[in-house]
Specification:
The chain has 138 residues and is α+β, with helices and mostly antiparallel strands. It has 3 helices and 4 strands, in the order H-E-H-H-E-E-E. Helix content is 32%, strand content 25%.
Length: 138
């Protein structure tokens, strides 16, 4: 009986694992110092939040610079097409001691064209090898 319950529980947990690892929504908080204006600080804090989410998701960080002109509007929601960042929802923004905090929910779909670290991970063996002649080392 215990084996049956354990196997059913294990099967259920293992079947739920792929769903947990492929989340597309990320909730992050970006921050920036208020120097020139609150609008500029909001833009920098929103960029910081997007950078954190894109970096965590493994998407291409270089594509964030294309979004900057679109983020200059003071809107609460942003929707993008043909981009890894699909949707940005600004949930909360507040200023505390001259620092702007922007809490945002960001929907990211990483493309397959990005460079993944796991693809280039290679193993390297170092060992003592006896050589009969120096020409074998080439």
């Amino acid at each position: 009986m215990k084996k049956t319950i354990f196997s059913l529980f294990s099967t259920f947990i293992l079947s739920m694992m792929p769903w947990l690892t492929h989340a597309a929504w990320y909730e992050v908080t970006g921050m920036a110092t208020v120097v020139a204006s609150e609008d500029a600080a909001r833009l920098h804090a929103l960029e910081d939040a997007i950078y954190k989410a894109v970096n965590f998701s493994g998407a291409d960080i270089g594509s964030i610079s294309n979004l900057r002109p679109l983020l200059e509007d003071g809107r609460k929601e942003y929707q993008f097409t043909n981009h890894e960042v699909r949707y940005v929802l600004v949930e909360e923004q507040k200023i505390y001691k001259d620092v702007m905090f922007v809490k945002a929910r960001i929907d990211i779909y990483p493309s397959a064209t990005g460079c993944h670290v796991d693809q280039y991970k290679k193993t390297f063996l170092v060992s003592n090898i006896d050589l009969a002649s120096p020409q074998q080392a080439v």
